Amino acid sequence: MAVRETNRTIRKQPNKKRSLLDYSLICIVILLSSFGLLMLYSTTSYVDQIAHAGNAFYTVQKQLVFTSIAFVVMLIVSQIDYHVYKRIAKYIYPLAIILGILVLFFGKEVNGQRRWFSLGPISFQPAEFAKLTLIITLASITNYCYLALKKYRVLFVLAVVTLPIFIPVVVANLSSGIIIFGIALSMAFIASNKKFIFVLSIGLGLGACVLAFKTGLLEMILDGYQMDRIYAWFDPVAYSSTNGFQTVQGLYAIGAGGLLGRGLGESVQKMGYLPEAQNDMIFSIICEELGLIGAILVILLFILMIWRFMVIAVNTKDFFGFMLVIGIMSHIAIQLLLNVAVVTNTIPNTGVSLPFISYGGSSVLFLMVEIGIVLNVSREIKLEN
């Protein structure tokens, strides 16, 4: 299938009835967002009453505003022809690099890190914009190089394009850098016919990480606080008063929830024991209040969303739309996987939010924009699944 031929075929059928939006995907987004607001209220109401003069709705009100605006933006984006992103990729790519560099010098400093631009009550995290920009850019490049995807040099091109976005992001925020790396790796793997090189690279990469740790080289590469998180990952109880405190409290919450949970609103850990409960660790509160059954249902809802992405992707009529959906699917899947892995101490604590559920304006806005793009792709196809 030649990309240009496919695009011409679409243009030759202007009278063909376009399918409606994927309402099943919209329903999943509404369910996740509504559940997120419910859990956010449950998680923050106690602390908000103390910190904000009895206003138990302080945090959830802000998130409701963010989510409402983001949902309207999603609907607007869903009406924009996704092919336009091929034309704007060359403009937003350098902008993402510039913003990533500027935030290192002029961003708002929180806990010793500069990750946000702040203008009064409004904060903007360039890393979220960088994720979306990378997806659009790599989709555009793979579409342009469609006939050359069998060659190794395309992988080199994708790596060269990813690095200028990846480097400033990973300096400011390791977790966002890992997500960007994962998005690029996933999209390159799907696009390329050279699958073996990915298996070899991942094997060599893991071996290099183990070797660097054993030889002490990793301590020279990473900052001290990042190494402390790795040590706390190995034995969180030994570091329960310092870097392992959040992990241990999160595991207490998961263990206390058992099979059915304490009940909605009955979490103990949210009462000031678990740091960042409304952000990175909200999955722990879900486990504590709703138990293993509730946690599984939430994960199944995400799996259903990813399945809808796959259905849309395989039915897309051009390669650019296919790669856009794959990139967005990779982003949400990787972020979900990392968040659950961090909360359960499967990987070191890196501070990854749970999509659509954790508190955050920039995150929910760009996630909704991505959903809007997928919805527009779905308008161009006739789904039979």
Task: Note the total helix count.
Answer: 14
Helix content: 55-70%
Shape summary: globular
Q: Please tell me how large the radius of gyration is.
A: 21 Å
State the distance separating the first and last CA atoms: 23 Å
Order of helices and strands: HHHHEEEHHHHHHHHHH
Structural class: mainly alpha
Share in β-strands: under 5%
Spans with pLDDT under 50 lasting ≥5 residues? Answer: 1-17
Mean pLDDT reading: 86
Strands across the major sheet, in which order?
A: 1-2-3
Q: How many domain modules?
A: 1
- Total number of beta strands: 3
Largest sheet: 3 strands, antiparallel
Give me a quick take on this structure.
The chain is mainly alpha-helical and 385 residues long.
